[in-house]
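User: I'm putting together a small comparison set for a docking exercise, and I want a reference complex before I start. The sequence is below, and the ligand is flavin-adenine dinucleotide. Could you produce the 3D structure with the ligand included, as structure tokens?
Assistant: Of course. I'll restate your input first, then give the structure tokens for the complex.
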Amino acid sequence: MDSILLVSHVDPDGALPRAALEALAAARTLGAPVTAALFGHSVGKAAAALAGTGVAKVLVVEDPALEAARYSTDAAAAAALAKASGASLVLAPATSRMTRVMAGVAQRLGGRIDTHVTQLVDEGGPTAVRWYYRQRIEAKLRRKERPWVLLVDPGATEALKPAGGAAPPVEKVALALPAPRTQVTGVRSPSSGEQTIRPDAKVLFVAGAGWTKKQQDGKPHPEEAEALILAFLRGSGASLGSSKSLVDQAGEGQKVFEFMTHLNQVGQTGSTPRHAKGLATCCHGEEPHVVGWRFIRERRAVNLDASCGWARGKADVLYVADAFAVMTKVNALLAAKK
Ligand SMILES: Cc1cc2nc3c(=O)[nH]c(=O)nc-3n(C[C@H](O)[C@H](O)[C@H](O)COP(=O)(O)OP(=O)(O)OC[C@H]3O[C@@H](n4cnc5c(N)ncnc54)[C@H](O)[C@@H]3O)c2cc1C
């Protein structure tokens, strides 16, 4: 039977990333005992948060140099922890920090890596499930090579709820970290303005190119559109998605919203976010866009066109209405609730 290690960094505030508890839930489905491994500048809080999760013990590397994400130090810590555990299956949450180093860690361990794992199942041995071709094909993978490193996508599994009680025993792993050549001087957000991508939000709000098109009075109203979208995002806490047509407008010299970047694009050449609900506005609902809605469970759309793509089996509910009017009303209702 394989021995399983879950390895993760801790967040800058010392907390255990939620994605680590999701990866742990995925690991537990394999039935084998799981050892946890944490690295960071201070790991006590995260190790204590593993009480009542069924992990046998927690291996730790603690060092001030591990406060910030840095390839050389993160990779050295993760590799040392994996080696110390002797595990044949090494799971990591696919946070940006772990994603950056785990391929290199697999190489240092002489192992193999698979990424974007959404589920683990035991089918006569550990089997990883992942999607290919923009979430159109689901595949099951097994490997003979060990150690097998697996990066588990966040948002695919319910996070394990720690039952509390006695914290698992902690074992320090001694490691002389390589002298860092990179100094981290600060963090800069990719978006120039407001942070609009919120992976943990319940609702995905998609804005399409219709927001910048000529309206019934023959004129476009981009400033009004911008104010309506921002007011909804602030009032609801929703995450902002976009169609390709809207984000591409910046390259064509047209008005595009300050807070919108290509990172917001959902679809075949964009992202495939995971949210419980989605609301598309002024977006036609064409297949290359809607393919990015694979993991949105309840879908609604507002469009003036009763024959738009959403009407053709792509949304649960289509409101044939003017999104300017609808969002004005929705924002007023949200404001009244506060
Ligand atoms: C290879 C390839 C990859 C692609 N990848 C992606 C991708 O990743 N993501 C993506 O989004 N697209 C992608 N596309 C483009 C995609 O096919 C569509 O062109 C794009 O999604 C259209 O964007 P839209 O619906 O915002 O704009 P439009 O097609 O211009 O639709 C605007 C909509 O707004 C509605 N509207 C206007 N005013 C109002 C109003 N006041 N109230 C309500 N509704 C209103 C209109 O009725 C219309 O339906 C890809 C295309 C190709 C060929």
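Residues 14 and 42 are 6 Å apart (CA to CA). Residues 208-210, 213, 215, 243-246, 265-270, 282-284, 286, 288-289, 292, 302-305, 308, 322-324 surround flavin-adenine dinucleotide (CB under 6 Å).
User: Thanks, that's exactly what I needed.
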